[in-house]
Design goal:
By secondary structure, the protein is an alpha/beta fold. It has 10 helices and 7 strands. Helix 1 packs parallel to helix 2.
Length: 274
């Protein structure tokens, strides 16, 4: 039974709802197990766990680390680890920096946007305002179309982030398991030479579905992910990549619509190295 959602965002990282609201929505949607996986943030984990215990939802502490070329999901992380927390905070500050630069560029191009307005609109994400918040700002304030978002993306600054190998190692050192997030968006990460490199760093799994309906999530890519999983004994995961109650983009990304079986949690636990 697909009663598990392993990819969820809160208002601490380009989401719409608080951690507690997310947990209550999962309960309402019939989901029993969730992972909070905010981008470069662990702020919402404690609140989600408390609410989960109150209403009977299992909450797995997680994170989605932005890396050079793609992103990696971390599950069962020791988010109390001070070194890991500092590393995550450093990545968050980079998000702030790049988003501010993008806003400055857009303003020069004639778009009505200011970084201060975004911080004011999304106060809980202060210190971790990633570029998705620019999209969110236009989505909520201006009701712009997907075509509009594609238009302004060309003004995004080039970002320098840590390597995916380093991101995986960070998660492993924080006692977590590491899973490639939506690899169909970054197909280079599915090349065999790269997969071998990631496995050596400690990769444990690959996300198979997160609600995306983009053209690049093809049947061919899905088969490739499954073949890689079988060949290298990697866990296949699934989640909604939830951000907003109404969904967003070309996919739905709604809790309860996309997920995986709870046995996936047990498979991930087997990979834990305490």
């Amino acid at each position: 039974m697909k009663n598990t959602d392993l990819h969820i965002h809160t208002y601490y990282s380009d989401g719409e709802l608080s951690p507690a609201e997310v947990v209550r929505l999962a309960k309402k949607s019939g989901v029993k197990n969730i992972a909070i996986t905010d981008h470069d943030s662990i702020k919402g984990i404690d609140e989600a766990i408390r609410e989960g215990k109150r209403i009977g939802i299992k909450v797995i502490p997680g994170v989605e680390v932005r890396a050079n070329g793609t992103e990696v999901l971390g599950y069962f992380i020791n988010y109390k680890n001070k070194k890991f927390a500092k590393q995550i905070e450093k990545s968050a500050k980079k998000n702030d920096y790049y988003t501010k630069k993008w806003c400055e560029k857009l303003k020069k191009e004639g778009y009505n946007i200011d970084f201060k307005d975004i911080v004011k609109k999304f106060p809980k994400a202060k210190g971790n305002i990633n570029t998705a918040y620019v999209i969110n700002f236009f989505h909520f304030e201006k009701k712009e179309s997907q075509e509009f978002y594609n238009k302004i993306k060309k003004f995004q600054p080039k970002k320098k982030r840590i390597s995916l190998v380093k991101a995986i190692k960070r998660i492993k050192k924080a006692s977590g398991v590491a899973v490639l997030a939506h690899p169909w968006i970054y197909p280079d990460c599915l090349k065999e030479k790269n997969i071998k490199k990631y496995i050596k760093a400690g990769l444990d799994g690959v996300e198979l579905n997160n609600g995306d309906k983009e053209n690049y999530r093809t049947e061919k890519i899905i088969r490739k992910i499954k073949n890689i999983s079988e060949k290298y004994n990697l866990v296949l995961t699934g989640g909604s990549d939830f951000h907003y109650k109404e969904g967003f983009g070309n996919g739905k990304h709604i809790i309860g619509k996309v997920g995986c079986d709870e046995k996936v949690i047990e498979e991930l636990k087997k990979r834990l190295r305490r």
